[in-house]
Hints:
Number of strands: 30
Number of helices: 3
Strand content: 35-45%
Strand order of the largest sheet: 1-6-5-4-2-3
Structural class: mainly beta
Amino acid sequence: MKKILFLFIAYILVITLPAHAELHVDIIAGTTEPTSIAIQKFETKSKTDATTAETIRSVVEADLKSTGLFRIVSHDAFPEFVKMGEMPEFESWQPIKTQVFVQSKLDTTKDGQYKLEFYVWDINGQEQIEAQSLVGSKKSVRRLAHIMADAIYERLTGETGYFDTQIVFIAETGDITNRIKRMAIMDSDGHGMRYLSDEKTFVMSPHFSPNMQTIIFLSFRDDDPMVWTLDLDTGAQRKLGKFGGMNFAPRFSPDGTRVAISLVKNGITHIYEYDIDSKKLRQLTFGNSLNTSPSYSPDGKQLVFNSDRSGNQQIYVLDLDTLNVKRLSYGAGRYATPAWSPDGNFIAFTKIADDTFYIGIMNPNGRNEKILAGGWYMEAPSWAPNSRRVVYYETEKSDNDMERISHIRTVDVTGHNMYDIELPENINGVEPTWSPRLP
């Protein structure tokens, strides 16, 4: 992926008034009243900049609203316009129940870049709580907006933002009997989708490397199902290695030096680990059971996977030093596609029980299982980099067997605030994977 911008982020010292009770958005309860936030029209010097500023404003508002944690105050209700460098009249914002006020300015620099400044005010506390200045290329307008939204989100929730990210997925088009599957990438809000593979090759299971430079995926090129890598800077593709059998379900280790894969040999599927530098392959699971869908723990010391070694499909965790295996899931039904959260606190999974598919989470010890979503068919959970939301895909049941519509959806770890990521018309999205924060 060509780097379309260079961003320099300068943090301005936060100017504060006398201390009050600090504003903090409760992100745990999930059902609390959203925090109301008013984002004022940006100050600009030209009509072109004004148009761009409105784009940034709308993206920031959409990002924050999508979390379910914020309510955007109607522009028509604003009681005043506050110039940059001036304080708002705090009392005038309270009748419309505004809790957070944001004022911004967009300029074009001498070298043709955008400079975006914004201040964040706590209305009830009557103090400025954030001030930043961002500089980016004119091709990076939406990314500037996502970074601004991340900054506001982080200041108000205390958690890392996830708007300045991307999602790689499989874009399906065509009749159900002859689906074309192409690898595609888009921003976290669905904007800017572009294809990464052509129509001729059937591809599946894309995942990012930790440094966002490489995508690893399964390709059926020349009818040979093998794991390949794609360099996002150059577009170069190469086969990961020659393993003497069908290999699939690849995942990078947290440090990017190893890849866990499922490899079929003599009709038995086991999990192996491939060292990229030494090109050595190490077998991790043994026996006659099917073992697949590996996912590393954030420290790279363990691997969670699903296996039918107990008689039906369940989730297990493997210690990479000792190769000891422990069963995690014991609920009714079958469990699949586990994914360890970046903070290490959860494992997301697919569950199949009573002819229904579910997306759920559990603690790494297998306890506190919680269902986040359920439907006719859903699969492939993947985590936002702050471990706050899960992205997955859901296929709707249709009365016409020749129609299958698949959506990419995200849901909060509380099980609330589920929403679809809008895709271009006539495109079905499956197997989404959320990226780390963009470099």
